[in-house]
Specification:
Helix content is about 35%, strand content about 20%. The chain is of the alpha+beta class. It has one domain. Strands 1-2-3 form a three-stranded antiparallel β-sheet, with helices on one face. It has a three-stranded antiparallel β-sheet with strand order 4-5-6, with no helix packed on it. The termini are far apart.
Length: about 170
Amino acid sequence: MPRIKALLVFFIFLLLFSWFTSSGIWKRIKANNSFYTEKEYHSENAEVEKLKKKSIEAISFIKKNGYNDSVCFFIDMTLPSGQNRFFVYDIPKDSIQRAGLVTHGRCNEMWLEGRKYSNELGCGCTSLGKYKIGNPYTGRFGLAFKLYGLDKTNNNAFKRFVVLHSH
């Protein structure tokens, strides 16, 4: 009987290990804990430079409109969804403090091919532009914030219930 239990445990371990290594999780963990290749390093530096240029625009906008000038968030929707494209930017330090993944709207489709953006009510799509963070509330994914769109491309964000939350 103990031998059967040991074999059963080993078999379960083998199944889990097989799933773990074939599911892509292993590749993501390995990628996040390995050194950059030269191509990845230059790509990362290009992203940092792009964000620094955007920060100049953001700082000007923040000062002009009297917003908080200590931190801002950048989301680069041109990057693939499996790559870090959400950045917390420390304005006084002129540096990226954190980076992470961010999802996008799927435009009420089961599977969205390519990218679509819209500001129409009920569209389910991502809206591009500058946002102001509203008051916090507790939602389905915990702490969340409704967003106010500040551009013509996202001025329906509050009515559309566009939110910032962890998932």
